[in-house]
Design goal:
Elements (H helix, E strand, L loop, with lengths): L9 H7 L2 H14 L2 H4 L3 H7 L4 H29 L1 H22 L3 H11 L2 H13 L7 H12 L6 H11 L1 H26 L4 H9 L5 H5 L2 H10 L1 H31 L7 H24 L4 H20 L7 H30 L5 H29 L3 H23 L9
Helix pairs in contact: 2-8, 2-9, 2-11, 5-6, 5-7, 5-8, 5-12, 5-19, 6-7, 6-8, 6-11, 8-19, 9-16, 9-18, 10-11, 10-16, 15-18, 15-19, 15-20, 16-18, 17-18, 17-20
């Protein structure tokens, strides 16, 4: 006898998705099996090719500066080209082409050029989000974001293959193979999504409204959008929290592999197994834990996510390098990180989606991504210089950022009612 699925479960949402949300969510595993399978190892790949921590941090910052430029232009580009076209074109430019450069990378200049080109994904961060949610039911948006994050983590299934490749071939040849795989699967994702989606209703309207205007004329209208943002305490709060969370994520993703490999002496072929654990935990939390915590509200899960991330960062810097105890302790720290990562990402997207005027979504989201990059950009270089001093310091910096985020959250919710995660 089949048990009925709860109407508000992620499984039910997944089964009943239609149109663009279905196309975006169902193709997202290809992201996990392409870029997400190799990007976690980019920092140790750069180290293996002779770069130091400061140069790695500098490249991260340059990549974010590129994203700032493309994020600024992403609203006008998305409105003028349409959500579907912009996503297809800039996914190829921002991901498929850099994957080929990373595949053949030999030194600093290769990674610098790849980071600059990769920054064009600032357009698809906007256009793809619009394509995902503009035709979706509002009450489904939180669960749709949860599904996309979970599906993006499906690379965990194949991470043991990465461990085997590194064991058999050593790090550099193994990562090169992963980037070839990333180019093929990411390009396939772009093609499938393009032919299974259609332009959103708002996208069609904006394409008509922007006809005959160039990108820079449209960008000149950002002054009005800034006024809209400043009038909404909810949007301002969501942008600030997202910027802080993005900064923590950038530092964590760049230097976690470095501290594990260089300070804790975790062998390179074992590193992929920790990514398996991180991804599996994120999926479990998103499907089974976070929905039970929400209960229609966002405040408590947001606070719990921040505290959980803080504990994970604290544990990471306290783990001793000697002895086998470091392995279970790393796993425990990833439990806290896994919950914090999954919840924080989903909640940030949900809060901003709740407050944005649908007719101005593309330009508001563009400014939001741009502001996030402006805040985060210096921290790539700063955390790289800190890591050259001590592998612990980037994560001490993260703890400070998380404390600021927690304080801002507590202050905001003293004056505002809680947001509804269900969008009633």
């Amino acid at each position: 006898m089949k048990l009925p699925l709860k109407q508000d479960s992620l499984f039910s949402t997944l089964i009943h998705l239609k149109g663009n949300p279905r196309a975006c969510v169902y193709t997202e595993p290809l992201w996990g099996l392409s870029m997400n399978l190799c990007m976690p190892y980019l920092s140790v790949y750069m180290l293996a090719l002779g770069l130091n921590d400061t140069r790695i941090g500098f490249i991260v910052s340059i990549g974010m500066l590129s994203q700032i430029l493309f994020s600024f232009l992403s609203g006008p580009i998305t409105d003028k080209m349409g959500r579907r076209n912009a996503t297809a074109i800039f996914d190829i430019i921002g991901w498929s082409i850099p994957a080929l450069i990373w595949w053949r990378a030999e030194g600093f200049l290769f990674f610098l050029v790849a980071a600059i080109i990769n920054g064009s994904n600032g357009v698809t961060a906007n256009s793809w989000t619009c394509l995902l949610i503009e035709d979706a039911e509002k009450k489904q948006i939180t669960r749709i974001f949860s599904l996309t994050i979970a599906f993006g983590q499906l690379s965990a299934i194949f991470a043991p293959i990465t461990a085997i490749l590194i064991s058999k071939l050593t790090l550099i040849p193994a990562i090169r193979i992963l980037y070839v795989n990333a180019f093929i699967l990411m390009t396939l994702k772009v093609i499938i999504l393009y032919f299974t989606s259609k332009e959103t209703k708002i996208g069609e309207m904006r394409m008509i409204e922007t006809r005959g205007k160039n990108i820079f004329q449209l960008a000149g209208g950002y002054g009005d959008v800034i006024k809209i943002i400043l009038k909404s305490r909810g949007i301002v709060f969501a942008i600030v929290i997202a910027a802080l969370g993005w900064t923590v994520g950038i530092i964590n993703n760049t230097f976690w592999q470095v501290i594990a490999n260089k300070k804790l002496f975790v062998p390179e072929n074992i590193l992929p197994l920790f990514n398996v654990l991180r991804s599996v935990l994120a999926i479990i939390f998103l499907f089974f834990v976070i929905p039970k915590l929400l209960k229609g509200l966002l405040k408590i899960p947001l606070i719990l996510a921040t505290v959980s991330s803080f504990i994970g960062q604290l544990m990471l810097i306290l783990i001793p390098a000697e002895g086998m105890i470091k392995y279970p302790l790393l796993c425990v720290s990833l439990v806290f990180d896994g919950f914090g990562l999954g919840a924080f990402m989903m909640l940030n997207e949900s809060i901003i989606a709740l407050h944005v005027d649908p007719n101005e979504r593309a330009r508001i989201m563009a400014l939001r991504f741009m502001l996030m990059m402006i805040v985060a950009a210096p921290f790539g270089w700063i955390s790289g210089m800190l890591s050259d001093i001590s592998r612990n310091l980037p994560f001490v910096l993260n703890m400070g950022i998380l404390l600021v985020s927690l304080i801002i959250t507590l202050i905001y919710y003293r004056k505002e009612n809680d947001h509804s995660a269900e969008y009633h």
